């Protein structure tokens, strides 16, 4: 078993006034050679955007981009024709593929929007851009792992162009569950959205990150009521990055 622990206060930080952003991995002006990625997981940004502000239209390509609102309403528009507002309890994926233009704004003028934006290297380059979102508001599962992303179109949740499985764990204090790795060679990056938890002897608090690999599974225990994101991804980079 191999692990890496990233405390919340060790993340990169940039406050632009309208945007307050924490970077688990190297991003923009925050660069750390030891924290450039975790397998194909490239970006975990924890963003707060002021009312009425946001990211103007800008390009992406060859990246799987996942947005998970934590508070408020995030307005999205892209060149595939996808347009809408995502809220807490909803998730959006965008396959940038061969190229896409998009914008993201705080839908409200009077309150912040907080969201996680996650980037994953895809299996292959140049796929057709696409966007999709889902709501868990009527199907939220407590005290079990709830799959929200997989590689399979017909599986639970959304799908992306990578052998990745994302689960949300909303656990009451004292609940523990065994997580089983889906695919040999994958690792899991655990990000505590709020609350606290434990994996083996490693204590994890709000916004801490913990990567674990070279295992077939592990036990996750909530030491307080907690919301935890588990991102299982290939540890080997695709051939185009080697």
Entry summary:
The chain has 242 residues and is an all-beta fold. The chain is built from no helices and 22 strands.
What does this structure look like?
- The chain has 242 residues and is mainly beta.
- The chain has a single domain (2-241), classed as Jelly Rolls, CATH 2.60.120.10.
- It is built from no helices and 22 strands.
- The strands form four sheets. It has a seven-stranded mixed beta sheet, with no helix packed on it.
- The radius of gyration is 17 Å and the shape is globular.
- The chain starts with a strand and ends in an 8-residue tail after the last strand.
**CATH level 3 topology:** Jelly Rolls
Total count of domains: 1
Using DSSP, what is the number of strands? 22
As a percent range, the share of strand residues is over 45%
Average the pLDDT over all residues and give the rounded result: 96
Radius of gyration: 17 Å
Helix content: under 10%
Unreliable stretches (pLDDT < 50, length at least 5) are: none
Q: In one word, what is the shape?
A: globular
Q: Main β-sheet, in a few words?
A: 7 strands, mixed
CA(first)-CA(last) distance:
24 Å
Order of strands in the sheet with most strands: 1-20-17-22-15-13-14
User: Could you name the CATH class?
Assistant: Mainly Beta
| CATH H-level homologous superfamily name | Jelly Rolls
State the helix count.
Answer: 0
CATH architecture: Sandwich
- What order do the helices and strands follow? EEEEEEEEEEEEEEEEEEEEEE
Structural class by sheet pairing and helices = mainly beta
Family: Belongs to the pirin family.
Keywords: Iron, Metal-binding
Pfam families: Pirin, Pirin_C_2
Cofactor: Fe cation
């Amino acid at each position: 078993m191999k692990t890496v622990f990233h405390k919340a206060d060790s993340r990169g930080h940039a406050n632009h006034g309208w945007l307050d952003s924490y970077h688990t991995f190297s991003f923009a002006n925050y660069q750390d050679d030891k924290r450039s990625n975790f397998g194909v997981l490239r970006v975990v940004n924890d963003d707060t955007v002021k009312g009425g502000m946001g990211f103007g239209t800008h390009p992406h390509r060859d990246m799987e981009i996942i947005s998970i609102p934590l508070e408020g309403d995030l307005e999205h528009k892209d060149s595939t024709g996808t347009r809408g507002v995502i809220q807490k309890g909803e998730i959006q994926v965008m396959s940038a593929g061969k190229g896409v233009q998009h914008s993201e704004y705080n839908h409200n003028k009077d309150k912040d929007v907080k969201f996680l934006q996650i980037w994953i290297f895809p299996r292959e380059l140049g796929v057709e851009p696409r966007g999709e979102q889902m709501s868990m508001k009527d199907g939220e599962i407590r005290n079990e792992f709830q799959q929200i992303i997989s590689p399979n179109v017909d599986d639970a949740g959304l799908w992306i162009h990578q052998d990745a499985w994302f689960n949300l764990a909303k656990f009451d204090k004292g609940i523990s569950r065994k997580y089983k790795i889906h695919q040999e060679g994958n690792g899991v990056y655990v990000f505590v959205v709020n609350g606290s938890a434990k994996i083996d002897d490693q204590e994890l608090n709000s916004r801490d990150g913990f990567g674990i690999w070279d295992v077939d599974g592990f036990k996750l225990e909530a030491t307080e009521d907690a919301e935890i994101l588990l991102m299982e991804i290939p540890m080997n980079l695709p051939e185009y990055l080697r």
